Amino acid sequence: MTQQVWIILLIVVVYMAVLAGISVVVRRSSRTSEGFASGGRVFPAVLIGFLLMSEFIGTSATLGTAQQAFSTGISAAWNVVALAIGFVLFSLFVARKYKELGENTISGAMARIYGERVRTATSVVMTCALLIVAVAIYASGGAILATLLGIDHTWATIIVGVLASVYVVVGGWRSVVYTNLLHAIMKLAAVAVLAGIGLARVGGIDDLRAALPPASFSVDGVGWAQIFAWLIAGIGAIFATQYVVQAVTTVRDQGRAQRAGFYAALMLVPFGILAAFVGMASAVLYPDIDSIDALPALAVDIDPLLTGLVMCGLVGAILGSIAALIIGASTLMLKDFYRPYFNREGDDRKDVVFLRVATFVAGVLPIVLALLAKDVLAVTFLAKSLRAALAVLIVLMFYKPGYGSSRAAFWSIVAALVTTTGWFLAGDPFGVDNAYIAVATPLVIMTVVHLVNRRPVPAPPTSTEPTSTEAT
């Protein structure tokens, strides 16, 4: 390896050592199942805001936005801006209700109104959605490592997946909260550095505008149909993502839960715009590369010290998002499958062992699919669409609990999983994005059942008492 690569690796190793130190220091909090899954304490709203922002800008969002901007221009930033809008709406309409409910899993909250079958269905769909996002993160992380070290893409993806899984198993949720503060800062710094260098090499905004087609600077360059699809999927993902709920329930009160979402939105907007400029600059500087290499190509073509900084940001993008994803998935498996069927006596030591094993398995499982993933943004978008279907039921649960029925809610989830995935695999026929199918499916089913079979309106969920299937 060249001297440049050794310098970059040394910087990344130092960064990893700092992360390991944080994990070791807070490891004490992960010795119980509750500590592993929620950190064992309350956290400041601004810290949770950094966590939420960091979770949603993994390598798939970072590379994916640059990849899209390489082809379509600045409008690719809507992919991330949609998430910021989602956090604003989440803070205004849902965050306080989740905190008041006192339930740290979406499936547990849904069970309060729609029953146990819906709990199980929600847990399955949510786990699938989280693991699909992990597939996209590993694929993009492998692309970065392969470009940097000049190694086979398959081995690069495997290395990323295994290291990320081990990292999460060690520290638990509290480690994720603290390390994601560092990750968020590094990610913002990385895209800012790349955008600045890219624009400087092109000659500035004016020269960039002259070198690219006029549509590249259009707000709706990707088309309003795509932008609205990103908004639907992004907002739905915020409303119905397990680790978002897990995060906002760790603050002290409802007001702080709202502020955490506003902080996240405030940081996401500039990140999306900067990532888009990286892709646009690469389109001018490296017009013959594959679009997925838009960000890596620029990252390895700068001073090695700055490349090391960028790599730390990308490492943070991988680890920050993966940590929240697989802890969220393992928490669902613990509460909805392991405890009710295999640990009814509530032995916490068994819960901790299961959480660590499930976390590692959830981290390793997506590696195989990541080796086949090509369009990073499309894969991530499918996961958002699946969660958007759940978001419809969540809004009904809090604001219209008598709409439809428990059975309709269950079949809405099952049908949405089938129709959305099928529509995605079919290539979004007739130009209709799968996000629209994801939202329309539960709306249609719940509306038809509501009109055909009106039932007494149950009270909206407010109790903080545990449900009968949880250990007390």
TrEMBL record:
Organism: Pseudonocardia adelaidensis
InterPro entries reported in the protein's UniProt record: Na/Glc_symporter_sf, Na/solute_symporter, Sodium:Solute_Symporter
Family listed: Belongs to the sodium:solute symporter (SSF) (TC 2.A.21) family.
Cell compartments where the protein resides: Membrane
Top-level taxon of origin: Bacteria
KW Membrane (keyword) present: yes
Protein's membrane topology: Multi-pass membrane protein
Positions of transmembrane segments: 6-26, 38-57, 77-95, 124-149, 155-173, 185-204, 224-248, 260-286, 306-332, 353-373, 379-399, 408-426, 432-452
Statement: the UniProt record of this protein carries the keyword Transport: yes
Main location: membrane
Protein name: Sodium:solute symporter family protein
Assigned keywords, A-Z: Membrane, Transmembrane, Transmembrane helix, Transport
